[in-house]
Amino acid sequence: TAETGRGSISESEITIQQMAVRNEKTMEKKRIPVRPHHGMCLAYFIGKGYSEGFSAHMEKMLHILEQDVSIQLVVSLDEICSACPNHQFLTDEENPGEKKEICEAQEKVFRYDHGVLEACGLTEGEELNFLEFAQKVQKKVIDTGLREKICGDCEWNEICSEKSSRWENKNILR
Hints:
By secondary structure, the chain is α+β, with helices and mostly antiparallel strands. It has 7 helices and 7 strands, in the order E-E-H-E-H-H-E-E-E-H-E-H-H-H. The longest helix is centred in the N-terminal third of the chain and has 17 residues, at about 10-25.
């Protein structure tokens, strides 16, 4: 482990932080891929996460996305996933010597993603500005009480159940 101003972090978290910095440099110039369920996660994010590296990256992504950047909804690994410990690199059995990227919890997050898409009337691959997406998540998922139905089995559900959405009282594209 290496020492930082916030305590010790593992070598894998250093790699995650380096990836986050590298990715941030090119991010604002292109459409950012976003998993639909991350619209709910970001609404309640309070700085807690799987690791220090993940939480720092999530905070950075929230700041970038709230600048109303252009996003593309993807039901696959996105920019936020790049710092998640559930983001795994496995040997591709079809192409020996190649690695493929997967989410360790892919069945669960696939269900979350499709729940958000369906509730918001959106489709995979759709492109829109982030604040428009956040507004749809707020109005059609959070305000209607569907969040608990879509992701009530998430390990972070307690945080979301105990606080208000960051967008609840903000006038985002209303």
